[in-house]
Amino acid sequence: MMILADVISAAVLFAVPLLLVALGGMFSERSGVINIALEGIMVIGALFSCLFLRLADASGWGASAPQLAMLAAILISGISGAIFSLLLAFASINLRANQTIGGTALNMLAPAFAIVLTWAIQGQGQTTILIPTWIRISGAKSGSTFFSTLIFKNLFLTTPIAVLLLAVSAVLLYKTRFGLRLRACGEHPQAADSVGISVYRMRYAGVIISGFLAGIGGLSFTVAAGSGFQSTVAGYGFLALAVMIFGNWNPIRILGSALFFALFKVIGNYASSIPFLPNFSGIKSSQYIYQMLPYLVTMIVLIFTSKKSRAPKAEGIPYDKGQR
Amino acid sequence: MRSGTFLSSRACSSLLASAASIFCGLVFGFLLLLAFDAGSAMDGLHRMLTTGFGSPDKFAKVLYQAAPLIMTGLSVGFAFKTGLFNIGATGQYLMGTFCAIVTGAVFQQPWWIAMLAAMLGGAVWGLFPGLFNALFNVNEVITSIMFNWMGLFLVNLGFSNIPPALANYWGASNADRTAALAAANASAIIPRAGLNTLLNSNYMNISIFIAIFISVVVYVVLHKTTFGYELKACGYNRNASIYAGINAKRNIVLSMLIAGALAGLAGGIYYLSGTSQYTIVKTLPAMGFNGIPAALLAMSHPIGTIFSALFISYIQVGGDAMQPEYAKETIDIIIAVIIYLSAFSLLMRNMISRVFSRKHYRQEVSVQ
Questions:
Q1: In principle, which of A40, A288, B130, B283 could form an S-S bond with A110, CB 3.0–4.6 Å?
Q2: A131/chain B closest Cα distance in angstroms
Q3: Which of residues 60 through 119 in chain A touch B, CB cutoff 8 A?
Q4: Within a domain: residue A27?
Q5: Do the Cβ atoms of B145 and A108 come within 8 Å?
Q6: CATH class entry, domain B53-317
Q7: Which backbone phi and psi does A156 adopt, to 5 degrees?
Q8: ipTM given for this complex
Q9: Which among A108, A233, A238, A281 is the top mutation candidate for probing chain B, defined by the most B β-carbons within 10 Å of its own β-carbon?
């Protein structure tokens, strides 16, 4: 029973970055811009927030008001991600560049920049930014009963914030005028323009929101990974893209697919302690089989769901006002 | 006036646009060096730009790294021509590596059979994204990314379970890397043809010539055959090509298959050199991803890819020489900036050709 609590709590922990980043991708694509730069944006968000946490720890202020410092770090990660995403917005909206190429460039830029900056701040070869331990929310008697393990084993402020952002995203996209306009720009920008909506402004909004969410996703990944910031988010930005497609560009379904994916990801780590799973005793390094699992499952699921896939129609196509 | 038509030609304006991107990237890199350590910035820039030609063995290193980079660049560029983004060159490269080493070290085959095996391995791994795109309409970017990670874990699993592929089987102490070919099967090493003594470096072999030869083959296929024309037609406008009677689905699958084979060969070229051993790690190798800038900088032109890969390899060797004052990742930043700028190269290219063709037009008018 305790192992179940462990698995669920770890799955939720890893689902948070996937959820946030996939939501970010959704906003960008719903406005008509393919955001393949999510990976890079995550790195930038994590970089600046971890630098902030390091500073807060060194000054002693962080430990005295840990959750306030964490909240500030979350804000910093979101804002730095949003600023970084402006580079993508500028290239793909104003200059009508190929969105995939621009995104790829940002994905290369971010980790390299993070390493160079980390070197410059911490000294040569010091590539890991350690994150302080006080950011964890520790409840009473964590780990003693099923529910305390479930809730408090891996609880960080990023988890409740992610739930909040999910609710806000769903309302924003489907219940507000802004959301309707954003979606219109992703489906048929010419039609949106003809009724007076500024397509450029809407697309900027979509990309900036995606940068904000992906930045926070970067911090929550680093927190979940647990070994400090190492200038990488281990492909989670790309996984989030798959989660987004699997979730059919819909916030609630994205939540479901993020949890699904994270569960498969975590099962690999706990495989040896879950009794009913085969342990492949004849094979060396059998952990790789379980590590392959989430990707394999996603592929299979994508085959079955792709026929019904509802991608925004105008995504990836630069908007040209003069085009007929 | 002839210079006018030349300058406004497509090839020339592409070249100028790439050169402008490279120049801006280098300027940005220099500013970065100034920002982090102004004192040794000049020296750093000097080392970055001259190390590659500084000595024969450094030049050999440039060629040694450029050969697989040309192949992954060709792979990405080939898929681009069909309108596909092959971000999965990394996975195909890994499968190529796996097949090459297993064929060479375990089955004791000569190098050229190992190379063919590498192509086959990469092709199989490229086939999946192509099939998924053609049959199920799954975006090839997502499939390729999934297959990158599956490839990595599968290759690690494979190597861990084939003892003769590992170094410790052949008398070395470490089990986390593949066999040194010199010990396992010297005939699986790509021939050096005396080039190693010429450039005084063990890194040197005929792989760069293989890569150049294949670039030419790809160029001929893309530009001089009906098959190549069909591929490009699919890339420009898939619906129009279907309307014209081209089997677009078949072409998508074939394009990814060939792209995969090219990336797989990159793995073969790199690990059959006899100087590198694959280390079992949990991170994706950079060689596959670096094919993307190589292809973009060359605007997917096969012959251009030779030069862009040589350039990238050149400044990477320079970047290694900049350590320890600067992290060698500075080079990645420069490359990223160049790619970012080349993303709107189309805009730049149009601007350049417009400027020149206007001048040309005026001259013509004045002559009349």
A1: A40
A2: 22
A3: 87, 91, 95-98, 100-102, 104-106, 108-109, 111-113, 115-116, 119
A4: yes
A5: no
A6: mainly alpha
A7: -125, 160
A8: 0.86
A9: A108
Helix H segments across chain B?
Answer: 2-7, 10-36, 41-54, 56-81, 89-101, 111-136, 140-161, 181-184, 195-198, 207-224, 226-236, 238-243, 248-271, 286-297, 302-322, 329-343, 345-367
Interface probe with B: pick from A87, A101, A115, A296, most Cβ of B within 10 Å: A101
Residue B274, token pair as written in the block? 């006899």
Classify residue B275 by its DSSP letter: S
Predicted confidence pLDDT, tens digits, chain A (324 residues): 777 888 888 899 999 999 999 999 999 999 999 998 999 999 999 999 999 999 998 888 888 888 899 999 999 999 999 999 999 999 988 888 888 888 989 998 999 999 989 888 887 777 788 888 888 877 655 556 777 677 777 788 999 999 999 999 999 999 999 999 999 999 999 999 999 999 999 999 999 999 999 999 999 999 988 888 988 888 889 889 888 988 889 999 999 999 988 998 888 777 766 766 676 666 777 778 888 888 888 888 888 877 777 778 888 888 887 775
Q: Is A48 part of a structural domain of the chain?
A: yes
Element (H, E) at B363: helix B345-367
| Cβ atoms of residues B71 and B266 within 8 Å | yes
Which CATH number does the domain housing residue A214 bear?
1.10.3470
Domain containing A142 equals: 2-308
Burial B89-112 (b: 16+ CB within 10 A, else e): bbbbbbbbbbbbbbbbbbeebebe
**What are the boundaries of each domain within chain B?**
1-37+326-368, 53-317
Whole-angstrom CA distances from B248 to A173, B227, B239 are 36, 11, 9
Q: Is A164 on the interface with B (CB under 8 A)?
A: no
Please tell me the total count of domains within chain A: 1
